[in-house]
Amino acid sequence: MDRHRDSLARIADRVPLRAWAPDTIDLPWGDPAFSERMLLEHLSQEHELASRRLTTIAAQTDRLVEWMGAAPREGVSPSVLDVTCGPGLFAQAFAGHGFSVTGVDISPAAIRAAAEITAGLPCRFIHADIRDVVLPTASFDAGVYLYGQAEVPAPDELDAILRRIRAALKPGAALALELRVASAVPRTMSTGWHTGVDGLFGSGTQLVLSERGWDAQARATVERHHVLDVESGELTIFGGTARALERDDWAAILTGAGFPAVEFHEAWDGLVFDDSTNWQVAIGR
Ligand SMILES: C[S@@+](CC[C@H](N)C(=O)[O-])C[C@H]1O[C@@H](n2cnc3c(N)ncnc32)[C@H](O)[C@@H]1O
Prior knowledge:
The chain contains seven helices and eleven strands. By secondary structure, the protein is α/β, with parallel strands linked by helices. It has two domains: 2-28 and 186-243, no CATH class; 32-183 and 246-284, Rossmann fold, CATH 3.40.50. The chain has a seven-stranded mixed β-sheet, sandwiched between helices. Helix 2 packs across helix 5 and helix 3 (54-68) crosses helix 4. The termini are far apart. The relative contact order is 0.17. The structure holds S-adenosylmethionine (SAM). S-adenosylmethionine binds at residues 29, 50-51, 84-86, 89-90, 104-107, 110, 129-131, 146-147, 149.
């Protein structure tokens, strides 16, 4: 029971939630075992976490093609860069619109699934961290960075990522960022717990103690999960940070990274999915 006691002591001694602290930077998307478990969530049609349902993605892609103004023209197949592409569900949908797609993702399981799902389509995938991936210059007709992933990096990191994307796009090409509406992000502390067997955070029976808070200085919501393996007493910590900024802030961030013309689309223009009203899309050029 020593291990259980040590783990409980670590939980009791935890530091307050803070944005981008060592245990709240992001989920371990690139970890092979975690990525296999997360892939099941991506592909589930029971919920819209990790990736949305295929019907939602098809409808979102219709709108993105229209908003980015990069539809195919007479025999010319435009190219789209999908940053943090997951298991290629958007790649498949964009290919259906006549696009060739390059996806980048850090998850080995997602990249493997993406190649399988888009077999025979003009899609290729790069298994890399968007923070240091090398991309071709002035190559893509459009870019997408979806599901709030631009909220995750710290400010300097995000600026570098957006500049890297800007350099990979052709001049004037559009980048679509899908972002949470700031007012939809809770700013009060909340805690919760559950038990489960073989879940997202590991195998075996687990006790998961979750907390979420607001880092006012970073203007970010921070989550942390202490996951106790009930049998062995081993403790694993998962966490993440996501900024909740106003439209003007996002416009300034995009402008600073080389996309001076920014327009916003609210709630996917009336598309209905689980939490569609919590989202907006910024199109920067
Ligand atoms: C919420 S999922 C969204 C996936 C996809 N855009 C979709 O909507 O189906 C976030 C994705 O970002 C990827 N990701 C997270 N951090 C990354 C990084 N630093 N570099 C590349 N990919 C990353 C994860 O592996 C995961 O596939």
